[in-house]
Amino acid sequence: MLKPILIAEADRGYLEYLADLLRGLGTEVVQCYSKPRLELALNRSPDGAVVVSRSRSPFGLELATLVCVVTVDPAILPSSQRSDPAVLALISSVQQALSPGYMRSRTKGAKVLVLAGSTGAVPVVLELLRRLSLRSTAVVVCQHISAAYSENLRARLAADCQSRVRLIAGSAALEPGVVHLLGGGIDWQLRRRDGGLYIERFAHNTGHFHPSADVFFESLIETRVESLAVVLSGLGADGAQHLTKLKATGGSIAVQDPNDSVASGMPQAAVTTGAVDAVLSRKELAPYLEQRTC
């Protein structure tokens, strides 16, 4: 079944005009004239939607992951005929976005790459982000750090990383091609809403290490996103608790070789679960991830 077309436009006359143009494409067309209407339509479309709007962020909403936004050419006016080149281009773009393979082609490989670590992991994360060229894969860095050190680490990552680095301090849309550094001292989870994936604060901190890889990995299972979880050097056993279930629900798991880690606790605990797809040396990690992200 084709995803619905959600037209986000405050001008009711223009909204109806766009709806008339797109009604013949064989799927549901929903007119969203306000932010609440668009949010409601997105929540009713858990498998994604095509949003048609004059803005990349209609009504100020950040749309990500399962939502494809097709922007309307300013040259298209309510008086424009269906035969006008700009109108034909819009219809073609929406048809392409509706095609079954389109979203898969935009997100080939893992949609979310999670790098989880503690003691000894930061140099490895820096090395990996220096190598990876990201377009569609969103990266989440779940590094055990204090809140006071978070901005310092963000600056270190941004200095060497090819992609934009965001420090997550509150609810934020998961953006393809962006590195999301989880703020220190608290736990975070991934959630589906408004047709996309969002990183949100976890209500109750658990354990002794924050942000918790166990908490974030469990949210990968709940959202059923295509993910690649990587457990790096670190003390303790954080990250191992939900790996078996993550593997069973389609997630991929890689681990830094405990013998090649500054602190072997986290990698060894992950290996012990028997759910790991690959145990890799520090030198082998980057080539492995390059083949599985885009």
Summarize it.
The protein has helices at residues 12-22, 35-43, 85-98, 102-106, 122-131, 150-160, 213-223, 243-248, 265-272, 282-290, and strands spanning 5-8, 29-32, 49-53, 67-71, 112-117, 138-143, 165-168, 172-173, 179-182, 188-193, 196-201, 227-231, 252-256, 278-280. With 294 residues, the protein is α/β, with parallel strands linked by helices. The chain folds into two domains: 5-105; 107-290, 3-Layer(aba) Sandwich (Rossmann fold), CATH 3.40.50.180.
Description:
- The protein has about 290 residues and is an alpha/beta fold.
- It folds into two domains: about 5-105; about 105-290, 3-Layer(aba) Sandwich (Rossmann fold), CATH 3.40.50.180.
- It contains ten helices and 14 strands.
- It has a seven-stranded parallel β-sheet, sandwiched between helices. Strands 2-1-3-4 form a four-stranded parallel β-sheet, with helices on both faces. A three-stranded antiparallel β-sheet has the order 8-11-10.
- Helix 8 links the parallel strand 12 (about 225-230) and strand 13.
- Helix 5 (about 120-130) packs parallel to helix 10 (about 280-290).
- The longest helix is centred in the first third of the chain and has 14 residues, at about 85-100.
- Residues about 105-110 have low confidence and may be disordered.
Could you outline the blueprint of secondary structure elements for this entry?
Blueprint: E1 5-8, H1 12-22, E2 29-32, H2 35-43, E3 49-53, E4 67-71, H3 85-98, H4 102-106, E5 112-117, H5 122-131, E6 138-143, H6 150-160, E7 165-168, E8 172-173, E9 179-182, E10 188-193, E11 196-201, H7 213-223, E12 227-231, H8 243-248, E13 252-256, H9 265-272, E14 278-280, H10 282-290
